[in-house]
Every structure is written in structure tokens, then in C-alpha cells.
Amino acid sequence: MPQCCAVPMCANKKGGHKFPTEDKNRLKQWLVAIRRDKFTPTKNSLVCKSHFTKDDYQLPKDSVLEKPRPVLKKCAVPSRFPWIDQNSSLHQKKKERHQRRLARNERKISVQVHINNEKEKDDTFLMETTNFFEVEIEFEKKQNDVGIQCDLCGSDNLKTLKECLQNENKNKKSSIANVLDNQCGRSTVLYWFPRL
Predict the structure, then answer these.
(1) 78 with 166, same domain?
(2) Are 133 and 113 a contacting pair, CB within 8 Å?
(3) What sign results for the dihedral spanned by CA atoms 119, 120, 124, 125?
(4) Would you say 70 and 42 are in contact if contact means Cβ atoms under 8 Å apart?
(5) What is the pLDDT of residue 107?
(6) Is residue 147 part of a domain?
(7) Which domain holds residue 128?
(8) Distance from C-alpha of 83 to C-alpha of 74, rounded to nearest angstrom
(9) Which of 3, 65, 72, 186 has an alpha carbon 20 to 30 Å from 20's alpha carbon atom?
(10) Has residue 5 been placed in a domain?
(11) 196 domain residue, yes or no
């Protein structure tokens, strides 16, 4: 069964190199390089060949073959990734998405402005001359933080308000409203429901 590459955003299933599980220091370097610190590789986990450079390979010294297959150096660490490679299609797609987002934020809206130039009255009909102009208006999205400060009549008034609510509740046995208007002189409405 073909194994997928363990590098994020890579779905390559063509061969690869197993993680150096016997060398803990080198394993940590690989995990940091592929941005998967908390990943625990299994015996079948692979990093595909596309994440290594030509300098990461060497020819075996004791090969009897005419064209020996290069092997990965013991000190090699994967170093080619989509998030580093500026020419990758992934980077290009992200750049295009960013451009589209900027275009959305700075929308140009074409508006027809209706201008009445002349109004002429005649005995038999009303003639209205209208000109249309096309105007481009640029809108730029800006965000402003807004803060609202509320004052609840001060702590002394709150004690008075609480006492007033309790006294009113004894008499009415229902909800009490507009008490804040009387105490603070504001148009705030307070609804209070007694416990049953």
C-alpha cells in the first residue's frame, strides 16, 4: 500500500525516506523542519524525495553497479517545502487569493448619477430633460474600534435603587419598571422580576 508523504500540504505517494527513528536528535530536526513537532512517526512514515536537495544525496562508495542509485546522507534534513518555495503553485494560489481579497476590500462601484438639468413646462405636456453620468466611486474598507462607557448612577445610588425596588416589590408583587428614570433622571428602563 503506497504511503503519503508526512509533510503538510504534500500528497506525494512516490517513494520517500523513512524517519531516522534511531537517532533522536536527527529525528527532532526532521520534525521541526516539516513543521510537525508533535507528530510521532511510525515505522511506515515517509518524507518524499521532493523535500530533499541534490546535495542531500551521495553515491554509495562500495557499489558494483555501473550507475549506482544515490542514497540519502546520514546528516540530511528535509529542506524543500511548499511554504518556502517561492515558485510553487501553492504559493502562487495564495498570492492570487490575497490579490482577490484586496480587490474585494477596495471595491469600485459604478453609480449612475441622475441629474435633472432642465424642467420645461408647456401648455400640453411636461418635458423633463435628464442627463445620466457614470461616476466611479472607490470604497476602502476601514475598521474603527468603538468603545462605550456606561455609568449606572454611581454606587451610592445603586444602594438606594435596590432599597426602592424592594419596597416597591412588597406593595405590587409584580415587575417594576422605570425606577432608574426617577433615581437618575435618565431614560433607562429597568425591569425587575421578584422571586417566586
Answers:
(1) no
(2) yes
(3) negative
(4) no
(5) 63
(6) no
(7) 108-138
(8) 25
(9) 65
(10) yes
(11) no
